[in-house]
């Protein structure tokens, strides 16, 4: 029974690994053909993040406006959002992880959509905070841009993955070593 269970777990892990490699190859093909940096999808996400950042600042009583990829707060050019910072790659990594792990398809779809919304909103909040950081304390801007807010967003994604594994995926069974 234990040998049979171990074989099943190993088989599932190999399947996940093979799917991950195939998905990575597919992503790279799409990235170099359809989803080029600063392409239509990349630009749409960037513009949306900057728009929503401006919207939320104004909604909560601040003064902001934007161009396609730049946020202005109180008339000051505060944040330029480039393709590497729009969250597309982390959204793809998050979605791929959930899609590759065992679980019900409908649950995966709902969880991916909710997770993408959370990542999008956290990245929007990151842009807002960086904008105010730039205006208030330029000396800490580069550090916070490079480390602090990136760690926060990645921690949110990690927490979403852990929640997926613990509550919604059957993947936790792969690592359950209880041999009863």
Describe the structure.
71% of the residues lie in helices and 7% in strands. With 180 residues, it is mainly alpha-helical. It has two domains: 1-35; 36-177, no CATH class. Strands 1-2-3 form a three-stranded antiparallel sheet, with helices on one face. A hairpin with a 3-residue loop joins strand 1 and strand 2. The longest helix has 32 residues, at 2-33. The radius of gyration is 20 Å and the shape is elongated. The N and C termini lie close together (10 Å). 22% of the residues are buried. The model has no long low-confidence stretch (mean pLDDT 85). GO terms for molecular function: peptidase activity. One of its GO terms (cellular component) is plasma membrane.
State the gist of this model.
The chain is 71% helix and 7% strand.
Quickly list its features.
180 residues; mainly alpha; 2 domains; 3-stranded antiparallel beta sheet; 5 helices; protease; cell membrane
What's the arrangement of secondary structure elements?
Elements: H1 2-33, H2 40-59, E1 64-66, E2 70-73, E3 76-80, H3 88-100, H4 105-136, H5 138-168
Antiparallel strand pairs: 1-2, 2-3
């Amino acid at each position: 029974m234990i040998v049979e269970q171990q074989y099943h777990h190993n088989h599932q892990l190999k399947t996940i690994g093979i799917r991950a490699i195939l998905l990575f190859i597919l992503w790279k093909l799409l990235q170099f053909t359809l989803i080029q940096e600063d392409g239509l999808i990349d630009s749409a996400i960037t513009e949306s993040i900057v728009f929503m950042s401006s919207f939320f600042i104004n909604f909560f009583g601040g003064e902001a406006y934007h161009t396609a990829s730049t946020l202005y707060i109180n008339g000051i050019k505060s944040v330029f959002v480039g393709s590497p910072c729009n969250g597309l790659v982390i959204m793809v990594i998050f979605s791929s992880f959930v899609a590759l792990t065992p679980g019900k398809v409908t649950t995966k779809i709902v969880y991916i959509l909710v997770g993408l919304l959370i990542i999008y909103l956290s990245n929007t909040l990151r842009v807002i905070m960086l904008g105010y950081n730039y205006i208030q304390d330029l000396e800490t801007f580069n550090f916070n841009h490079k480390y602090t807010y990136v760690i926060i967003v990645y921690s949110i994604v990690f927490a979403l993955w852990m929640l997926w594994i613990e509550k919604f995926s059957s993947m936790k069974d792969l690592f359950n070593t209880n041999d009863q």
